[in-house]
Amino acid sequence: MAPPASRARREAVADALHSASIHLLRAIRAVDPDTGLGPARLSALSVLVFGGPHRLTRLADLEQVRPPTMTKVVTGLEAAGLARRRADPDDARAIQVEATARGRSLLLEGRRKRVARLAGGLAHLSPGDLDVLAHAAAVMERVAGRL
Fold it and tell me: pTM for the complete prediction?
């Protein structure tokens, strides 16, 4: 087993990953306006589609906003028919928010467009470079699970 990398090396890699991640996400989110949703609604809908129903307070925590802000976001999603509130099955006093079939469809189409844009950017890479990125993606998922 190799010795752990130095703190300076870990920080340099973390800085490079941070920058690359931001640039990559900025480039692929160029297709997001096609959804008709702003970033806050799109992000909250993504949490509901990929993470399942959540209480409004939990959704606010995940999105790092205050509950009144999330209430406005959810109200907008409801008005568009993309999400709905329902009684929490574990606590009748609480409310959960879930994506509707329409919300799921819209989000998945948006994701398809993002992935297609990214795949287009990968088209010029060699099979070896694609292998490196596939491995890096797996490693990044492991790291994300530890944060």
Answer: 0.85
